[in-house]
């Protein structure tokens, strides 16, 4: 059995939903279908979830929301009529929006109720459409599916007891269409996951029913070996391990949020990332272990927006606990760090810039000065990180050479190298201004087979 | 004014002491002379300090020590008579050994008294010899010199108030010869520094009298750019900064123990490392700042005997405080670490092997398992570290490239790279078995100007 999850762009219009229908029809193993809310049809369009959030906020502010409501209803009207489905479905959707807007509940709970209508409606539309194609299909509400969650509006966590209940869905006949993005507390209250939560639902269902494959349908052909906004026409990645996927996602490589996949990863269920618009393409497989050895480097990820906190103190290596006390100060201030290379008299801590407010910055530096008495102390912004990722990196001689050579040839100064913490990645820190030329040069060295240095 | 410190090999025989006399005579600025105990005359010889320690231990064990005592006295006899000095000096030395052996004191205090006789006798011999050359010279006892220390037998620490008293030595006329290695507590008890403590005395006197130069006379022409037991005939280093010196000493680069130089470093006093046997050579200068830019890399240090503690845990980066708690466990077990590179789901901690007993190893691993619940955990021994050191490293593009290329060409797998913590060094971790070929290849790339890869 397979679980197929379709993202917002696959549900944006009748035309797209027809493709979804074709995909489901073409493989009888696709028994579980998880759907997002309708996404954008074009760049100017707005996502259904954003419209619903606006609607909720407008009503909370006691502003007139009729126009917004009309936009939403028209969106659903077009989809439903273009698919030739019964108008009753539209009335049901309209009714549940109005009903939820009028319920006496906290704003947070009401927001979750209204937000969830996008996915819920998509699921009803898709199941009706599959039935219209002559398939045996059912809409299954998350409560019925057994998705029990914690009571944290907008950030629900799955409860472990859910999985036993979900497993029983295997016994049901027909295709089960389940809305993504939300579950129910034990007390029966609807609560949503964090944004992007349809991926979470898909992964939970895949784990619960012990799927042979979890297919994640999106609007790209595959995961690319490097950010396509930095390198033109980069190579596709055919097979990735979970660990490689995770390292790539570390520095801005986001086809989807990798943490959503944890339930599937934990059960060792392979994931396929495919394109609804080109379903015949293989896409990218994410697996726990590769059967065949591929090349040492599978991808290059990169991101900007990092800061370097540098602390120097003569004889630091003699002070047992110095590094630990520094990290304690950061922890007290709720700052997590990416990496903390240390030498005999120095330690540098790499931190996401966004974790600093100007006040926090002053406070952290003050505390370090007062508590650790460093000889030198600085906080520099504008660092970019590049991760070179691949399961073969540790065992392959010459990877560091190739990477350092590529950066030197691009005239990029390496401010930091971190190799050896992870077995599947190597990290370089460079000036943010050098990012594009650095990544392009690395891509050429590792992925362009024709490329040779003159 | 200059402070000249002479190591054991410079005091090992009358012949050597005559060289010391020449050196002092040749520069009237050499007003302060610090001496070690007589060292080895040849490979088979034993150092005076070792003989004295043996003597003390033999007497503590109530074993007959007459033969040992005779060996010591004959050593001094030969030096004194070969220099043509008054025999009265030998009787004084003999008397003070016997006197100290019979004193009613704790073993630790008595050990310090006996150990100190080597340096004390050297100082008396050298001052008498300088007088015999027609120079105005005086033996100055460390108590008289003002070297006040903490009451930690074998590990005395200088007390800050010493420096004011030492400064007054500037006013005295003639050449002052001061024994290295020991000082006195405020209560007047003799206590020795840690082994190699004559360097400490020299550095303290240089700091106290605000010397224009602290000359450290030893038996090598200079500090070498790489360990001469690994690379044949390596280049000499003409000028080093304190920081470079410190980084080089980190991984087994030990002309002398760099921490002994701290008092001199703190006052910015330049240090010259020279050879008693070739005093006309320039030697190596250690300075706070280089006037002229030299090449980016000044030296390569290396050492074996490191372990890697690897901890992997899925979503480690989400657990604020994970790294800090790991370091806390090490701190609790009194284990200091060299370096702790971390990634998204991994952290590796580099630790000196000698810090682990089998019991400690088990305990640390157990605690990590129980308190941090890692997915994977391992402790590997047999790591070697190579440090590439130079003030220009951070600003020079291509250093990492050169180093990684050199290692790749030598077919050495890089297990770890640490760059960015220190501004003056870059660290590579490799298998201990690859150390020689790795260091030789790095040396060629950075120091052999004629070398080019085919």
Automatic annotation (TrEMBL), chains A, B:
It comes from Ornithinibacillus bavariensis. Residues 388-454 form the ACT domain. One of its GO terms (cellular component) is cytosol. Pathway: Amino-acid biosynthesis; L-methionine biosynthesis via de novo pathway; L-homoserine from L-aspartate: step 1/3; Amino-acid biosynthesis; L-threonine biosynthesis; L-threonine from L-aspartate: step 1/5; Amino-acid biosynthesis; L-lysine biosynthesis via DAP pathway; (S)-tetrahydrodipicolinate from L-aspartate: step 1/4. InterPro entries: AceGlu_kinase-like_sf, ACT-like_dom_sf, ACT_Aspartokinase, ACT_dom, AKIII_YclM_N, Asp/Glu/Uridylate_kinase, Asp_kin_monofn, Asp_kinase. Catalyzes the phosphorylation of the beta-carboxyl group of aspartic acid with ATP to yield 4-phospho-L-aspartate, which is involved in the branched biosynthetic pathway leading to the biosynthesis of amino acids threonine, isoleucine and methionine. Its EC number is 2.7.2.4. Keywords: Amino-acid biosynthesis, ATP-binding, Diaminopimelate biosynthesis, Kinase, Lysine biosynthesis, Nucleotide-binding, Transferase. It catalyses: L-aspartate + ATP = 4-phospho-L-aspartate + ADP. GO terms for biological process: diaminopimelate biosynthetic process; homoserine biosynthetic process; lysine biosynthetic process via diaminopimelate. It is an enzyme of class 2 (transferase). This is Aspartokinase. Substrate binds at residues 49, 119. One of its GO terms (molecular function) is ATP binding. Gene3D superfamilies: Acetylglutamate kinase-like, Aspartokinase, catalytic domain, VC0802-like. SUPFAM superfamilies: ACT-like, Carbamate kinase-like. Belongs to the aspartokinase family. It holds the Pfam family AA_kinase. ATP binds at residues 5-8, 218-219, 224.
């Amino acid at each position: 059995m397979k679980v197929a999850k379709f993202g917002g762009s696959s549900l944006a219009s009748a035309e797209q939903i027809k493709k979804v229908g074709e995909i489901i029809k073409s493989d009888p193993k696709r028994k579980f279908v998880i759907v997002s809310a309708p996404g954008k049809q074009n760049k100017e369009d707005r996502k259904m979830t954003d419209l619903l959030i606006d609607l909720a906020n407008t009503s909370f502010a006691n502003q007139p929301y009729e126009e917004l409501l009309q936009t939403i209803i028209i969106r659903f009207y077009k989809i439903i009529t273009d698919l030739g489905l019964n108008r009753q479905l539209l009335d049901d959707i309209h009714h549940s929006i109005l009903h939820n807007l009028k319920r006496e509940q906290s704003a947070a709970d009401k927001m979750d109720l209204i937000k969830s209508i996008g996915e819920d409606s998509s699921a009803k539309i898709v199941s009706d459409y599959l039935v219209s194609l002559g398939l045996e299909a059912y809409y299954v509400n998350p409560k019925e599916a057994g998705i029990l969650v914690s009571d944290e509006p907008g950030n629900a966590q799955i409860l472990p007891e859910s999985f036993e209940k979900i497993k029983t869905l295997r016994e049901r006949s027909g295709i089960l269409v389940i809305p993504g993005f939300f579950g129910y507390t034990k007390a029966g209250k609807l609560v949503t996951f964090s944004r992007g939560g349809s991926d979470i639902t898909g992964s939970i269902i895949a784990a619960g029913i012990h799927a042979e494959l979890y297919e994640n349908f999106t609007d790209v052909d595959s995961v690319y070996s490097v950010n396509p906004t930095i390198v033109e026409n980069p190579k596709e990645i055919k097979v990735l391990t979970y660990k490689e996927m995770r390292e790539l996602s570390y520095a801005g490589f986001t086809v989807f949020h990798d943490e959503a996949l944890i339930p599937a990863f934990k059960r060792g269920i392979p994931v396929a990332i495919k394109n609804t618009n080109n379903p015949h393409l293989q896409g990218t497989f994410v697996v726990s272990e590769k059967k065949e050895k591929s090349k040492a480097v599978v991808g290059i990820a990169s991101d900007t927006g990092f800061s370097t906190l540098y602390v120097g103190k003569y004889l630091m290596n003699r002070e047992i606990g110095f590094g630990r006390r520094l990290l304690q100060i950061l922890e007290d201030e709720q700052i997590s760090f990416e990496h903390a290379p240390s030498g005999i008299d120095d330690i540098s801590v790499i931190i996401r810039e966004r974790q600093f407010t100007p006040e926090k910055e002053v406070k952290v530096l003050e505390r370090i000065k007062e508590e650790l008495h460093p000889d030198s102390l600085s906080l520099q912004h504008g660092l970019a990180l590049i991760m070179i990722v691949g399961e073969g990196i540790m065992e392959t001689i010459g990877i560091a050479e190739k990477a350092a050579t590529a950066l030197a040839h691009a005239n990029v100064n390496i401010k930091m190298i971190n190799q050896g913490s992870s077995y599947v990645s190597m990290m370089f820190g460079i000036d943010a201004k050098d990012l594009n030329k650095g990544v392009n040069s690395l891509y050429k060295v590792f992925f362009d087979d024709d490329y040779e240095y003159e």
